[in-house]
Write a structure and sequence with these properties.
The protein has helices spanning 22-39, 89-98; strands at residues 2-10, 42-47, 55-60, 63-68, 76-85, 105-110, 114-115, 121-122. The chain is of the alpha+beta class. The protein has one domain (2-122): Alpha-Beta Plaits, CATH 3.30.70.1060.
Length: 125
């Protein structure tokens, strides 16, 4: 079963390049990524550009509007994800607990199958 590990962190949190702790942070993320890749459970993953680069398409009363910026105001922002293929939620939680998110959080959510024309679940991967 596939699970998304949604990573949320303070956008301005954490050290920047050249600041104390930056190299250690980058090392921790690299170590995690290598481990999950070598395990064979990783389907895909990515980090995201800052929310200042976001554009939101909003749907209200059959009308759409395009808004610069993220869709919510929050202390934590969606920073990236890992999509993994593991047997069950317990296995997904093992990987989520290993993420070096610092003061952030990880939302673990199963991927739903898309229905075909007859309503039968279809794995689109």
């Amino acid at each position: 079963m596939q699970y998304f590990l949604f990573i949320a962190q303070p956008e301005t949190g954490g050290p920047g390049p050249g600041e104390p702790g930056f190299d250690e942070s980058i090392q921790a993320w690299g170590d995690y990524t290598r481990e999950i890749m070598q395990s064979g459970v990783l389907v895909s993953g990515a980090s995201l550009q800052p929310t200042s680069t976001a554009t939101t398409v909003r749907f209200v009363n059959d009308a759409t509007s395009i808004i610069d910026g993220p869709f919510t105001e929050s202390k934590e922002v969606f920073a990236g994800y890992y999509l993994i293929d593991v047997p069950d939620l317990d296995a997904a939680l093992v990987w989520a607990k290993k993420l070096p998110v610092g003061d952030g959080s990880v939302e673990v959510r199963p991927v739903a199958m898309m229905p075909d024309a007859q309503g039968n679940p279809v794995d689109v991967n």
